[in-house]
């Protein structure tokens, strides 16, 4: 079985490396490295966006939480659907029209202060690294199960892989690796759902009733995982708002030629990722039924391996040819998913370090294209090392929980700054710093003293802190704006920014 798994994995990896080589020959300018030259179609970018969002954390973590906690776990998946509407209606067009490569571009288009870019660098880097950690943790858990490879070895391997993809192929390679991964992931989910539905007479309601019979009404009722009454609301709020504040998602809107294409790509995202997330709910309940919660916890206490174990059970069980083949396929696809997602995160992070920090803050824009690409590639290596080191510490933690921490920081630190930059005349550089600082510190601090990390000894009662940290992020931004004093030049640019955000036309 180990040889089979390794063979399938090597096949998928070889395909992505060929794509990377092809992309590397077509990546020469900063625009090609950061944004694929802005030439992607709506369908291509939509598949890549879906690939960005359909992460290992979603595939493994959301499924595992649903298997262990029922509908409380499925909220992680369902709430994401509403996030896409917010992106479509509020975020996609203004970001595409006002930015070039990064979140820092969007903010600096109006603020034109190095301090604003520096704050954006901090917000982007912390969110992206926090999002990388669960992907790496998922890789470690998978390879430990399949090949008996130590967790640390698997994490280091993925770290090397993501650096190779980004350093040599840039956004073009990352995009096509994500497209390939999205197709594989959707195909795998389709086969899996069809297979398990066939076992229950193609009646999905039977999955829910069987789970209720086996584990009790709590599988279908709130409060099984999210104990506090505000938890479900806070989780939904975090996913809806936080997704719109994820830097690697926003970066995707710079890869298309215009705002119309950006909107169309979000529609593709809604269809593809929406279908996938609905599938994870069915798969999670099926895992609880056909594998069993005790068996899932025995292999991984966080539930991250519920999906591979279900694939094995549907194929005939451990030791059977069908079971081992399907297990190998699912795990190889999941591993490819991890590589693709961390590549996108690494690119977005290296972009903000090189473009925002080095080019615009340190060198004040006086950098050649070749030098900028060189710095971006060096920062890719540094970010890969940092993320890998942190991923080594995440063994045994449910990856979905870690993703929610990252999204909560994005919701509380990045989203208020984006909204106020685009729609509030008085907003200034001090507001940017205040919003990102307060939102980041409150989200991370409250999460670390909450049940997700402290368990029953938690000081803060809510798993997801967004219900409190998001208002604090807005409050920090507003307070910083007033404490920083009036910036009349910035206020004069507001009309220009607003016009550009809505039309894409630059005022001369």
Automatic annotation (TrEMBL):
It holds the Pfam family SSF. InterPro entries: Na/Glc_symporter_sf (IPR038377), Na/solute_symporter (IPR001734), Na/solute_symporter_CS (IPR018212), Sodium:Solute_Symporter (IPR050277). The keyword ATP-binding does not apply. Its main location: membrane. Keywords: Cell membrane, Ion transport, Membrane, Sodium, Sodium transport, Symport, Transmembrane, Transmembrane helix, Transport. It comes from the Bacteria. The chain crosses the membrane at residues 6-24, 45-69, 75-95, 116-133, 145-166, 178-198, 232-254, 266-291, 325-354, 375-394, 400-424, 431-453, 459-483. It is a multi-pass membrane protein. It is found in: Cell membrane. PROSITE patterns: NA_SOLUT_SYMP_1 (PS00456), NA_SOLUT_SYMP_3 (PS50283). Belongs to the sodium:solute symporter (SSF) (TC 2.A.21) family. This is Cation acetate symporter. It comes from Herminiimonas glaciei.
């Amino acid at each position: 079985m180990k040889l089979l798994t390794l063979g399938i994995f090597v096949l998928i990896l070889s395909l992505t490396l060929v794509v990377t080589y092809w992309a590397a020959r077509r990546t020469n300018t900063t625009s090609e490295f950061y944004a694929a030259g802005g030439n992607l179609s709506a369908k291509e970018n939509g598949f890549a966006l879906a690939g960005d969002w359909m992460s290992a954390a979603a595939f493994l973590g959301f499924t595992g939480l649903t298997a262990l906690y029922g509908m409380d776990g499925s909220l992680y998946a369902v709430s994401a659907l509403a996030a896409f509407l917010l992106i479509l209606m509020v975020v996609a067009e203004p970001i595409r029209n006002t930015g070039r490569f990064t979140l820092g571009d969007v903010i600096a288009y109006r603020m034109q202060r190095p301090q604003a870019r520096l704050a954006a660098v901090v917000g982007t880097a912390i969110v992206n690294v926090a999002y990388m950690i669960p992907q790496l943790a998922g890789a470690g858990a998978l390879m430990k199960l399949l090949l008996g490879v130590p967790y640390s070895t698997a994490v280091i391997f993925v770290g090397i892989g993501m650096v190779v993809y980004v350093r040599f192929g840039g956004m073009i390679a990352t995009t096509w690796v994500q497209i390939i991964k999205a197709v594989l992931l959707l195909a795998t989910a389709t086969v899996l759902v069809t297979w398990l539905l066939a076992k229950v007479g193609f009646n999905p309601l039977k999955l829910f009733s069987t789970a209720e019979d086996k584990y009790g009404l709590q599988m279908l009722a709130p409060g099984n995982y999210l104990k506090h009454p505000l938890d479900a609301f806070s989780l939904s709020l975090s996913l809806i708002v936080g997704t719109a504040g994820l830097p690697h998602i926003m970066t995707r809107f710079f890869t298309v030629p215009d705002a119309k294409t950006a909107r169309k790509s979000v529609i593709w995202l809604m269809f593809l990722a929406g279908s996938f997330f609905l599938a994870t709910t069915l798969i999670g309940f099926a895992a609880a039924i056909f594998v069993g919660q005790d068996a899932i916890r025995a292999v991984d206490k966080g539930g991250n391996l519920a999906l591979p174990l279900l694939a094995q059970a549907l194929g005939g069980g451990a030791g059977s040819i069908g079971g081992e083949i399907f297990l190998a396929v699912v795990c190889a696809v999941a591993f490819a998913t991890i590589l693709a997602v961390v590549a996108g995160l690494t690119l977005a992070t290296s972009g903000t370090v090189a473009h925002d920090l080095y080019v615009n803050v340190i060198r004040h824009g006086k950098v050649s294209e070749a030098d900028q690409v060189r710095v971006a590639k060096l920062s890719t290596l540094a970010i890969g090392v940092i993320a890998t080191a942190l991923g080594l510490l995440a063994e045994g933690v449910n990856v979905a929980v870690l993703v929610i921490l990252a999204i909560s920081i994005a919701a509380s630190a990045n989203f208020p700054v984006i909204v106020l930059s685009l729609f509030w005349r008085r907003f200034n550089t001090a507001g940017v710093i205040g919003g990102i600082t307060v939102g980041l510190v409150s989200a991370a601090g409250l999460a670390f003293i909450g049940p997700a990390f402290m368990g029953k000894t938690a000081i803060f009662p809510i798993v997801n802190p967004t219900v409190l940290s998001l208002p604090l992020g807005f409050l920090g931004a507003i307070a910083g704006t007033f404490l920083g004093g009036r910036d009349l030049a910035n206020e004069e640019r507001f009309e220009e920014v607003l016009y550009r955000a809505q039309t894409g036309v630059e005022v001369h």
